[in-house]
Design brief:
17% strand, TIM Barrel, binds iron/sulfur cluster, eight-stranded mixed sheet, single chain, alpha/beta
Length: 436
Amino acid sequence: MQLSNYLKAYPYEESPDHLLLFSTLKMSKILLKKKTYHAIENNEALSSSDEALLSKLGMIVHDSDEEKLAALGFFDEINAKKTGLNIMVVLNLDCNFACTYCYEGGMKGKLYMSDETADQLVDFIKNNFPLHKKSLLIDFYGGEPLLSIGLIKYISRSLKAFTESRGASYGFTLVSNGSLFTKKTAEELIAFGLQGVKICLDGPAETHNQSRPFKSGAGSFDTLIKNIKETCDIAKIGIGGNYTRNNYEKFPLLLNYLTTEGLTTDKIATVKFDPVTKQPEGEFAPPDSMGGCASINEPWLSGIAAYLREEILKRGYNTQKLMPMTCMVESADSYVVNFNGVIYKCPGFIGKKGYEVGDLLTGARDYVSVYNLGIWKNENCTGCEYLPLCFGGCRYMKFLRDGNIDTVDCQKAYLDASLETLVKQDIKYKLKKDKR
Ligand code: SF4
Ligand code: SF4
């Protein structure tokens, strides 16, 4: 047996005779005696129980070259097993906030999906929902999706009836600024299939109000806290937040505030903070709408990201787990539909010329070359221990940096700097939870 290509071995201070092994493919962890690890490296035979366990955890394989070949089919396998259709819908490009880092630029305005386009969206989804599909999930966003609440209900009413007639499920989520998410709205939308809402709080009141004020300039923090308190027992609330190099240190104060206000770990589904993405002026790519899928690839951020994750975990909140990279571009049956009916593969590319993959009337066309699918299918990446966490990184980040997606957005430096800490955090806080 050989060590898997997709394996990291870290020292484990609490037990110097052992190594902490982490499989980036299976996300499994184990403490293994150094002696056993070196025996595998030297092709020595293992006990049958060790061999069975390490194989099950994806840490050893019969042939590491074969494993690399199998990795080429990773997304094909995931796509073949997918039983759901996932569509992101930009309902409008309007907003009642004036966030300082919002780069909707010239694209922002009174641009709303029309009733006619909503009908075309429903037809498009019906035509792309084969009989074997079991679920339909829509992510509504904008702008501010709740400025189009009538359309949310209209679209959901049709699609809920359609999926239920097929014996499948319907649900939707919102990426909202939270200001219009009142108790009445939450109660109303639950009946239409609302599954969860992501609301951003950029630190405590002072910091948040500076970066996410209402258009009038008034602070929005108190309104959001009031709404979250009123709705957290009705809908799943995920709290996001966008930090900069200058204000990240304030974010733990927000966590303290949430706790003292009764927005405790049982009331808030997840908490995750992300860096504000630097974008070329005038480009449209709202940071809130990325659903957390855009990756961090600036090495200086790794320490801050791990620090904030620790602050979240030590207060007992759930946060994003380490998991394989699931980019929408590589995932089949995932599309982004703009308010005007144009289809894309990634929310970051909305409005970017050349990245359209069709429209609601003519349908989606082949997007393999436009989005450079399988960019990671090269010797360097298939032999890289981080492949399952990266798969060539994020095309959107690469585009922001270089204006093209011709090559990978390599995550090696970031993962070298941060993965060990993240894996050890998961062990520390899982162990703590288990002890409770
Ligand atoms: S390219 Fe990046 S932002 Fe776009 S779907 Fe993939 S991971 Fe997300
Ligand atoms: S892009 Fe870089 S980190 Fe990602 S799989 Fe390829 S070599 Fe590894």
